[in-house]
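Please describe the entry underneath.
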Amino acid sequence: MKCKSLELLDQLEKQVQEHMSFVNSLEALSQETLRKRPHEGSWNILECIQHLNLYGSFYLPEITKKISKSNLGYNVDFKSGFLGNYFANSILPNDKEKKMKTFRKMDPRNLMQSAEPIPVFLEQQNRLLHLLDKARSKDLTKIRIRLSFSNWIQLRLGDIFRFIIHHNTRHIVQIKNILSLTTTH
């Protein structure tokens, strides 16, 4: 995939703002609704958000560090890497929703629940918007960010942004599905 860097950042910012708006609306729901599971063994809404927070806790500091250290200036074009494009596209939800195995350290059921995952998510998304803005003066292709599950694999900054935001989209869809299953029964 090749595109204009600023167009990509504009599109990603719009998605982050949509995610924030949706998650912000969840604060009006009762704790019972937020903690209700559609079926045994599945995640509830707060666990989905906590899962996203775990990813944010890893990637936001990594991106901040790499953007701050980089002296690579703006590049008008972004060219996705093979692996980065694969990861970013494979995480998107689709019609034939495939289950994906979560890494143990990113499974919210294995950790103590944050009492306030929604405000943490919203704060992280504000930080993500700030990083997307800072990236407007950087080379999205040449800056590399390591993956949460590998110290050896690094993806291009533009691909990491796409992966994180597509991952958020996947779980926003999951939350909407949970709501439709738990509020109609």
User: Anything to note?
Assistant: The first strand starts at residue 2 and ends at 4. The chain has a mean pLDDT of 88. The beta strands are 2-4, 77-79, 144-147, 150-156. The helical segments are 5-26, 31-35, 45-69, 82-90, 117-134, 157-182.
